[in-house]
Amino acid sequence: MDPEKIKTLPSPRFIKTHMPLSLLPPSLLETAKVVYVARNPRDVAVSNYYHIKSHQVIPAEGEFKPFWKLFIDNHVIWSPYFEHVKEAWRQRNHPNMAFIFYEELSKDLPGVARRLAKFFGKEYSEEQFEALYNHLKFDNFKNNKSVNMAEWQKTGIITDSFIRKGKAGGWRDHFDEEMMQQADRWIEENLRDTDLQFPTDFLGPEEAEAPRSYYTELRTEYIRLGSAGYFFYKQFNIMALEVYNMPLRPTDTFVVTFPRSGTTWTQELVWLLQSNLDFEGAKATPMATRCPFLEFRACLFDPPTITDPNDSFEKFKMEVYSLDPAKIKTMPSPRFIKTHMPLSLLPPTLLETTKVVYVARNPLDVAVSNFYHMKSNRVIPLDGEFKPYWKLFMEDKVLWSPFFEHVKEAWLQRNHRNMAFIFYEELSKDLSGVARRLAKFFGKEYSEDQFEALHDHLKFDNFKNNTSVNNAEWKERGITKGSFIRKGKTGGWRDYFDEEMTQQANRWIEENLRDTDLRFPQTD
Asked: What's the distance, CA 276 to chain centroid?
């Protein structure tokens, strides 16, 4: 079929094309509705290879590895891939454009269906959406003769099924180590000038094993998310796409940290600066209400099961489980949101839309603080001594790790106009200076007396005893055995590291800082 025949089709017309937007009619987005679908380029390359391999129309020979080279060299039809996708990404907010990812279709088909129904101004009942979902489930779809081109196979045009596996992340079965590194460099280079990011891949739990003997009461498996392989309980994969796709507002402020990096201290500082130093409001309202923890549910290794109505721990888990991005969506503006998620697993438009304060801390102090936090905590149960825990930390087998990838992602964005990157060590040594920097970042002005009052409110001893931030109720309910806010000491790691661990740490840090100008402040 050619454009002349399509001209004669009755309305409404539904037209498929692989052409990039720049080669389609210039008035396309002003005239028509456009749904653009993007997919991880590695999966695209694998699927395209097998499609061509089985095809008589576009014949191809050879193995996948040389085809992959052609793909990244832009020597396959309709390439260059990244320019194609980026043209559409730049138009994603146009009222006539719906930009979706294949990975979203794969993981949240009902959610995408609802989004597109809204985009088209259509309303359907729950039963209708359920019927649609059943119709489109991959196995049903693959066996649907009206779409699977079965007649092509019968007539010899293709030698294999037109619709293959539909697997997100299946590229790993076809890439060797050299190709993976090549792909990482190619993707990084092509995403350097854009905020486009592809939804994270969910690796199987067999690729995220942790020594079970170290965690008490362990009844779960693990997953790794994203190209860096961030470590989570398997249950979190249900929520990860909700986080990635959560709608943002220009009035939002995110406090982003790796756990135990000064998160709560910074939350209080940020909230007060943005709330005209409302000390009374801060004291009256718990931090968890003023600045909720976006992915608190990620801490749960199993869903709550209340069999005893007097079990305060299971009740607490139920409260945590009920916290999700959907609830944060309904919060009034301005919203203040805490998260330990790395930037790559947060909404792709985060830095273009919101203010972000990222706090980094010496990883050795982070490891010590995290160990004692978990040790005293029933939510993330832990057993054993610090030395084997430190080994897990370096091996990226604690929640939200790998530590260095987490920090380096933010460090790369430190000069973005909507990013304030600070070190915990700066907070500890020059709290007033950091407060002034952040006030300027938020466009706020305060008098010397006001800054002095803020400094007094945030002084560590005062802060530790502040019941609106120290989660004292957790201790009362038996959730924790110790104080949520510990010592706040910089360089305290020296009290826990022997000579072997110190040398190990120095090698680990040196290796991870080799490709970056990131350096942690020196501590006494």
From this structure: 31
Which residues is 37 bridged to in the sheet? 100
User: What's the chain's length in residues?
Assistant: 524
SS3 202: strand
What token pair was written down for 20? Answer: 């990039």
Pairing of strands 355-360, 419-423: parallel
CB 196 within 8 A of CB 92: no
Q: What is the pLDDT of residues 363-378, one digit of tens each?
A: 999 999 988 877 766 5
Q: Which two structure tokens, joined as six digits, stand for 399?
A: 């929640």
pLDDT in tens, 173-200: 888 889 988 998 999 899 888 878 787 6
Q: From 468, 462, 455, select the one nearest 277 (Cα to Cα).
A: 455
Nearest to 298 by CA among 240, 254, 360, 241: 240
d(CA 79, CA 77): 6
The full set of domain ranges for the chain reads 15-184, 200-512
Amino acid letter for position 374: M
As its CATH architecture, domain 200-512 has 3-Layer(aba) Sandwich (3.40)
DSSP letters, 55-103, are: BSSS---S-HHHHHHHHHTT-STT--HHHHHHHHHTTTTSTTEEEEEHH
What does DSSP say about strands 230-233 and 253-257: parallel, antiparallel, or unpaired?
unpaired
Which residues are CB-contacts of 332 (< 8 A; sequence separation ≥ 6)? none
346 vs 64: CA distance, rounded Å: 33
Distance from C-alpha of 406 to C-alpha of 312, rounded to nearest angstrom: 34
pLDDT tens-place string over residues 347-402: 878 998 999 999 999 999 999 998 887 776 655 656 678 999 999 999 999 999 99
CA angle 409, 410, 412 (to 5 degrees): 70
What pTM value is reported for the model? 0.64
DSSP state of 520: P
List CB contacts of 518: < 8 A, sequence separation 6 or more: 407, 408, 411
Asked if residue 35 lies in contact with residue 100, where contact means CB atoms within 8 angstroms, the answer is yes
15-184: CATH superfamily: P-loop containing nucleotide triphosphate hydrolases (3.40.50.300)
Mark out the alpha helices in 217-358 (DSSP H runs): 237-244, 263-274, 279-284, 287-290, 312-321, 325-329, 350-353
Written as one letter, the residue type at 421 is F
Same fold, 15-184 and 200-512: yes
